[in-house]
Amino acid sequence: MIKNYLLVAWRNLWRKKSFSILNITGLSIGMAAAVLILLWIQSEMRYDQGYANKERIYDVWNRFKKNGEINCWRTTPKVMASAIQADYPEVEQTTRVNYPTSVLFSLGDKRITARTCAVDSTFLNIFELPLLEGNRSKALDGLYSLVVTQDLAKRLFGDENPMGKVVKLNNEHNFTVTGVLKEKPRNSRFNFECLVSWAYLRFMGEDDSFWGNNSTSTYVKLKKNASFDAMQAKILTLRKKYDKEDPDMETFLYPVTRTYLHGRFENGKEAGGRIEIVRLFGIIAGFILLVACINFMNLSTARSEKRAKEVGIRKVVGARRRSLIAQFLGESVLMSLLAAVVAVLIVQLALPAFNKLVDRQLALEWNNGTFWLGALVFVIATGLLAGSYPALFLSSFKPVSVMKGTFKAANALITPRKVLVIGQFTFAIVLIIATIIVRQQMYNAQQRQTGYDKGNLIYTFMEGDMYKNYEVIKQEVLSSGAVTSITKTSAPITESWSNTWGMYWNGKDPDDKRVVNRLCADNAIVKTIGLQLVQGRDFDLTTYPTDSNATILNESAVKLMGLKEPLGQIIKDMGEEFKVIGVVKDFIVESPYQPVNPMAIHGAKGYFNVINLKLNPAHTNTANISKIEAIFKKHNPEYPYNYRFTDEEYSHKFDNEKRTGTLATLFALLTIVISCLGLFGLASYMAENRIKEIGVRKVLGASVGSITRLLSVDFLKLILVSFVIAAPLGYWAMHNWLKDFPYRVPIQWWVFAAAGLLSVGIALLTVSFQALRAARSNPMNSLRTE
Predict the structure, then answer these.
(1) For 644-686, what is each residue's pLDDT tens digit?
(2) Is 762 a member of any domain?
(3) For site-directed labelling of 18, which of 37, 64, 451, 652 has its Cα 20 to 30 A away?
(4) What span, in angstroms and rounded, lies between the C-alpha atoms of 290 and 426?
(5) Owning domain of residue 80
(6) 3-state SS track over 168-199
(7) Whole-Å CA distances, 769 to 149, 641, 716
């Protein structure tokens, strides 16, 4: 029986090649799109999930109530790890991890820079990253211990065994390789190429006893039988014991496996995060697959009259309905299998471009048994879903009506087929609306005034001899004509590295804990960065040596401090007094979608990390950078000269939204293509079923245009109904998405008009092709048999 069903199924597919190609194409595109999204979702869900004993590892977070709101953040004081380890017996181990920095590795004539983190010696025991060489319990015990990744070891030592090899870091100290790590997956929070011991930071003068500087990530691993709830209750008051400046600040633990997807807090409560994007694209994947299945259902039921006699004969000779349902489901599963083969080819061809788009290394896991089981379930489930309605519909035919020739498919006002078409295009129109608004929002943020001139502005991180030779470098670079101005800062202008609620000014409420961002700079920051002065002047240490104790505020800081006459006011910070010498307009440092935070730019007593250079527009950037590079190499010969364009770094702030917008556009187009394939097939069968009517109308004088309208109007009505449903759904969805952005575009009427016109235009174009073809056919061909 099964053999017979398969044979009949194959014959039906082969006999109706155009129908089969349409169905397989629609299903395969839908399956391929769903698979790509599911691969990305799988990668996101696996983020930070690869650590042994991950259920016992926690991030240490801070929580503080200020001005009626509870703020949460993940950086902690360096001293916190040792305090937790000492005070709580439930804790097995703690470790600190600092922000990765670029470090120079010198080996003979070889010079390589690599991202390096300082960690406690317990780090490898807590996270148990795969170690190819070395002892994880002892690898970071020594002051000059070095653990490198497999790739860095290859770059440094080639094919030689790296263990025990000596390499110099930052031209200061020799380190010995004591461990080699296997390359980490990209879906991990750790982005280092090398690890050094925290003991080395202490040796170099790093202060890890101060509670007021939240600059380090701290991790805790609880003992096997420790109660998380009990530990959470205990650790809340940790700062009350040690932190004299902020004893009311709370400490809490958060699972390391949840931070990436769920680590967004609002008023002290977990409020989602990246998981919302994952869920959104999961829904999109489901709907795209559903749209493809709807195509199958519609095209299968459209051919009902063609298969009615087959059903009638089978029932007359004794076939039961359940056997007919099994037969039709078998046909749909067979078609799903064929579509899956095509889908795999599409996925393999699309993966390189898709990986580049989502910045991941996704792949089909051919050697994974779970993958094959999941693929089989996916294919069968798709086939059963696509074939369920046609199987029930076709198997319901009454043999008497069919054999008498009185059977006729229903043409009611509302039919399941029409409902399915409406559902398809409703989803497509919602996606079109979403795509337009996402792109609007991104464009709106990109057009927002930054408050400074990022054109022709580059920066380089200070390394090696740049510190001691800065003044010489500065003079030579200015003399070369390659730049018009130069300044040092503590951080890139596109990033906020330091903030505090411990800044004081005249009239400040002692309970005011609002945060002020902090940036340190030397001469000519206003000129170099292109900040817009509202009052006062730029830093000028040559004319005003006391500018090392001066500060420049942005307008938000002036407003927060309530300074009616800011110039000359004294601001206390970091144990120093700073005199306000200028006020600049607000400039965007952090998110372009959020309000600008208060900012104080302090004078030259700060610690500098970055050199900013304004390139001379009279020369090409290539010529300017060539001169700059020669000067930097002359005075800092051990380090390669690396630089970044500020405008390019600023553009990275839009990467997530660009990615979301591109993905939404891509999947909206795929949904439209799949839906149009279905419309094309339905229009073809409608024209075929009405071929004699068309012939009669043409004989009676009907024009090609009137017949085209006749065949198109029913589909146009369905698209219009889809639009009526999709418009409020799209508004609701995008209103909820936009509400998280303080700076957002208004949802305008033309977005819905454009989405409606686009969907109607595409649908009419698809249907009209078949309608015109039928309208231009020779009526004699259809009437000859009458």
Answers:
(1) 999 999 998 888 888 888 888 888 888 888 888 877 777 776 6
(2) no
(3) 37
(4) 12
(5) 54-256
(6) EECCCEEEEEEEEECCCCCCCCCCCCEEEEHH
(7) 59, 60, 14
Residue 48's region, left for phi above 0, alpha for psi from -120 to 50, else beta, is left
Name the pairing type of β-strands 69-73 and 57-66: antiparallel
Query: What is the distance of C-alpha 47 from the center of its chain?
Result: 13
Contact 425, 718 (CB under 8 A): yes
| Per-residue DSSP letter, 54 | G
Which positions ≥6 away from 719 have C-beta within 8 Å? 425, 759, 760, 763
156 and 138 part of one domain: yes
Q: What would you report as the CA-atom Rg of the chain, rounded to the nearest whole angstrom?
A: 34
Choosing from 233, 256, 279, the residue where a domain stops is: 256
Within-domain flag for 767: no
Q: What is the DSSP letter of 122?
A: T
CA pair distance 66, 73, nearest whole angstrom:
13
CA dihedral 758, 764, 765, 770 (to 10 degrees): 160
Spatial CB neighbours of 628, under 8 Å, sequence gap ≥ 6: 477, 480, 482, 483, 613, 641, 643
Residue 438 maps to a domain:
no
Query: CA nearest 516: which of 576, 567, 572, 450?
Result: 572
Q: Which residue has the tokens 């070891």?
A: 153
Exposed, middle or buried: residue 367 (CB in 10 Å: 0-12, 13-18, 19+)?
exposed
CA distance 636 to 113: 14
- 380 contact partners, CB below 8 Å, separation of at least 6: 333, 336
Judge contact between 457 and 529, C-beta under 8 A. yes
Q: Within 10 Å of residue 555's Cβ, how many Cβ atoms?
A: 20
Helices within 173-269 (DSSP H only): 198-203, 228-235, 238-242, 259-262
Query: pLDDT by residue (tens digit) across 566-589?
Result: 999 999 987 889 999 999 999 999
Within 8 A by CB and 6+ apart from 385, the residues are 290, 293
Instruction: Give pTM, 2 decimals.
Output: 0.83
Q: Which of 247-256, 320-329, 567-576, 609-618 has the lowest mean pLDDT?
A: 320-329
Based on the domain organization, do 148 and 236 belong to the same domain? yes
DSSP-derived pairing of the beta strands 217-222 and 57-66: antiparallel
Number of H-type helices and E-type strands within the chain: 25, 26
Helix (H), strand (E) at residue 480: helix 470-480
Residues 99 and 248 in one domain: yes
Task: Give the residue with greater pLDDT, 246 vs 651.
Answer: 651
Query: Per residue in 31-76, pLDDT tens?
Result: 999 999 999 999 999 999 989 899 999 999 999 877 678 888 888 8
What span, in angstroms and rounded, lies between the C-alpha atoms of 221 and 120? 13
Q: How far is residue 594's CA from residue 656's CA, in Å, rounded to a whole number?
A: 15
